[in-house]
UniProtKB/TrEMBL annotation:
<dbReference type="InterPro" id="IPR004305">
    <property type="entry name" value="Thiaminase-2/PQQC"/>
</dbReference>
<dbReference type="GO" id="GO:0009229">
    <property type="term" value="P:thiamine diphosphate biosynthetic process"/>
</dbReference>
<dbReference type="InterPro" id="IPR016084">
    <property type="entry name" value="Haem_Oase-like_multi-hlx"/>
</dbReference>
<protein>
    <recommendedName>
        <fullName>Aminopyrimidine aminohydrolase</fullName>
        <ecNumber>3.5.99.2</ecNumber>
    </recommendedName>
</protein>
<dbReference type="GO" id="GO:0050334">
    <property type="term" value="F:thiaminase activity"/>
</dbReference>
<comment type="similarity">
    <text>Belongs to the TenA family.</text>
</comment>
<comment type="pathway">
    <text>Cofactor biosynthesis; thiamine diphosphate biosynthesis.</text>
</comment>
<dbReference type="InterPro" id="IPR027574">
    <property type="entry name" value="Thiaminase_II"/>
</dbReference>
<dbReference type="InterPro" id="IPR050967">
    <property type="entry name" value="Thiamine_Salvage_TenA"/>
</dbReference>
<dbReference type="GO" id="GO:0009228">
    <property type="term" value="P:thiamine biosynthetic process"/>
</dbReference>
<dbReference type="Pfam" id="PF03070">
    <property type="entry name" value="TENA_THI-4"/>
</dbReference>
<comment type="function">
    <text>Catalyzes an amino-pyrimidine hydrolysis reaction at the C5' of the pyrimidine moiety of thiamine compounds, a reaction that is part of a thiamine salvage pathway.</text>
</comment>
<feature type="domain" description="Thiaminase-2/PQQC">
    <location>
        <begin position="10"/>
        <end position="218"/>
    </location>
</feature>
<dbReference type="GO" id="GO:0005829">
    <property type="term" value="C:cytosol"/>
</dbReference>
<keyword id="KW-0378">Hydrolase</keyword>
<keyword id="KW-0784">Thiamine biosynthesis</keyword>
Length: 225
């Protein structure tokens, strides 16, 4: 099996994730600012836990080769993606320590601890099945938005978000990570119990992504700014 089998096995949830109303409003530039800010703050906290999960992949690896494969993702999260969020949030006068002091919302706790638990109780492949919707999904969203002529780039307050995830650096790092996941999945039969378990893990993380977008949209009524 490979990553595409995982996506195909949960197609409905996958499409609900990658085409969520939050994504469509980002693309049109119509997303309410409180929703974006809530999402960014929570995503900062999400990425911090997510970096721990990639560090767990080093711990779970049996070979030096697999340990080295996980390291670029830890670096990319800590040096690039989290730093982008810190700079975006500086526009609202928020510092890195302000962001670290934020409370995690329920969807943030549920998703990140689910990924960490899948990796703790399973092996490295279970962990990657839980991590994969995050990287592969955002890369797909970035590509879709940049290829779609209806995406509003000019004057769009969220253009930085779109260019981050559509950009070469993010796309290449996800392509490398996905090739590694495919190598690990290649030994597993899609119709085996193991294959079905991995689909469940991948689908659960995909459903968590949908809930994470919704958590951002639901912030509309909260007084965030
Ligand atoms: C919730 C979520 N999922 C995925 C990504 C992309 N790394 C992200 N920043 N946030």
């Amino acid at each position: 099996m490979n990553h595409q089998d995982l996506i195909n096995a949960c197609r409905q949830d996958w499409d609900a994730y990658t085409q969520h109303a939050f994504v469509q409003q980002l693309a049109k530039g119509t997303l309410a600012q409180p929703c974006y800010l809530h999402y960014l703050k929570q995503d900062f906290l999400f990425l911090k836990q997510y970096a721990r999960a990639y560090a767990l992949a080093i711990y779970k690896a049996h070979t030096l080769a697999d340990m080295r494969k996980a390291l670029p993702s830890v670096n990319a999260l800590l040096d690039s993606e989290i730093s982008h969020h810190v700079s975006y949030c500086a526009n609202w006068g928020l510092t890195e320590s302000d962001l670290e002091a934020e409370d995690e919302d329920f969807g943030t706790v549920a998703y990140t601890r689910y990924v960490l638990d899948a990796g703790m109780k399973g092996d490295i492949v279970d962990l990657y099945a839980a991590l994969a919707p995050c990287s592969i999904g955002y890369a797909e969203i970035g590509r879709n938005l940049s290829a779609d002529e209806n995406t509003q780039l000019q004057g769009n307050p969220f253009v930085d978000w779109i260019t981050l995830y559509a950009g070469d650096e993010f796309q290449q790092s996800v392509a490398q990570g996905t090739a590694h996941i495919d190598t690990l999945l290649a030994e597993i039969d899609l119709d085996s119990q193991r294959g079905r378990n991995l689909i469940t893990v991948f689908r659960t993380a995909t459903r968590m992504e949908i809930a994470f977008w919704q958590q951002g949209l639901d912030a509309f009524s909260k007084d965030e700014i």
